[in-house]
Design a protein that fits this description.
mainly beta; 3 helices; 202 residues
């Protein structure tokens, strides 16, 4: 079941964009462009099992193995885990009473934001040569920290991608003259033989 207000907004997520850039002349015929980009996604929806609430879960901890490869986690308590009560285990496994609502109706944050920055250097050493080099980088931060049914969803609910640079170099040159070509068949090449339907039937 979809809540009417969520159905009205389910046609697509909202997107807000911000873009700003500045250009500066470093020296004659050389300029620097710097741009900042931000895109915010919203209008997220979640599926809520009406037969289950966060109170139906019991939080617990476990002890991590004693292994130096685990670093600081080795032999420590790992908490934030949740287990459904036995009375609601069957309901959680076969949900039948569900409703789709906006994530903003629940506690916590659910968002997705992209931030990016772009550097570009343009150079024209003369009237015919054009050179361009730059680097772009950005990352997306996704938060799914709204508690609907299972409180364990708060574990690792925020994902921050690393900044990944993208380098580029390009250029162009305008020739002062036009180049034209013509393909000629040497006289010593044999002429192509014509094939008629009479030859094809043999």
């Amino acid at each position: 079941m979809i809540r009417p207000s969520a159905r009205a907004g389910a046609s697509g997520r909202t997107t807000g964009s911000t873009r700003s850039s500045v250009q500066h002349e470093l020296m004659p015929r050389v300029s620097l462009d710097v741009g900042y980009y931000r895109r915010v996604f919203g209008n997220f929806t979640v599926t809520d099992n009406l037969d289950i609430t966060p109170a139906d879960y019991t939080s617990f901890c476990i002890t991590a193995p004693n292994d130096p490869r685990l670093g600081s986690v080795s032999a420590s308590q790992v908490c934030g885990l949740a287990d459904i009560s036995q009375a609601k285990a069957g309901v959680a496994g076969t949900p039948s009473n569900q409703i789709i609502r906006f994530a903003s109706e629940y506690g916590g944050e659910r968002s997705q934001v992209y931030d990016g920055i772009d550097f570009t250097v343009n150079a024209r050493p003369n009237g015919r040569l054009f050179l361009q080099a730059g680097v772009s980088t950005g990352r997306t931060v996704t938060k799914t920290c709204s508690v609907v049914d299972n409180p364990q969803t708060l574990r690792f609910c925020e994902v921050q991608e690393p900044f990944l640079p993208n380098y580029r170099v390009s250029g162009g040159y305008t020739f002062p003259y036009q180049i034209a070509g013509e393909r000629c068949v040497p006289e010593h090449w044999p002429a192509a033989a014509a094939v008629t339907s009479r030859h094809a039937r043999r």
